[in-house]
Amino acid sequence: MASLMEDLLDVLEKEEAQYQGLIELGKQKREAVIKADIATLEQITEKEGDVASVLQNLAKRRTRVLNDMATVLGKEPGEITITKMIGYLEGQKEEQEKLIQIKERLLTTGTKMRTMNEQNEVLLKQALEMVEFDLTLLKSMRQAPETANYNKNAYNTGDLLGGGGFDAKQ
Asked: What is the pLDDT of residue 168?
């Protein structure tokens, strides 16, 4: 059981480190969005994908370790959680304290990550709105108003005024 506990703590610490890395990437992403640096955004997104893959592997490993612990404790695999494990470690204060600390760090990191993601989501929405505004403005600048010219059947001919630009001589 001691080696399983070491494995669990190791996996949880590695997960926390990966989430901390995601927070740093989130900060970089925020700067890239503000600067509208598409190339950097692409690189960050690729790095996030790599970290997500590592996290998925760590989650599978954590599940295996918890299932092994459940078997040793005579519980159903899939029933054991970190919180339940903390409760089962009443007689082993040192391991229990380590597990409590890593759980709290993971929760804190998760909260930071959620906040960062929400901020980046707002920034991305604002950036998209700005792009949409710019496109609408460009389209409207290229279109001239229609004239009120009618053909012999009283239909609007749809003729456009001018070239859409403003010419001024200095």
From this structure: 56
Query: Does any domain span residue 165?
Result: no
Band of residue 131 on the pLDDT scale cut at 50, 70, 90: confident
Q: Read off the pTM.
A: 0.74
Instruction: Yes or no: say if 30 and 119 are a contact pair by the CB < 8 Å rule.
Output: yes
In angstroms, the Cα distances linking 26 to 18, 41, 50, 140 are 12, 10, 14, 36
DSSP letter for each residue of 45-61: HHHHHHHHHHHHHHHHH
The region of weakest confidence among 46-50, 106-110, 129-133, 148-152 is 148-152
Classify residue 37 by burial, with Cβ atoms within 10 Å: 0-12, 13-18, 19+.
middle
**Torsion angle of C-alpha atoms 135, 141, 146, 147, degrees rounded to 10:** 170
Look up the CATH number of the domain holding residue 55: 1.20.58
Domain residues for the domain of 31 are 2-142
- The rounded distance, in Å, linking the Cα atoms of 5 and 73 is 12
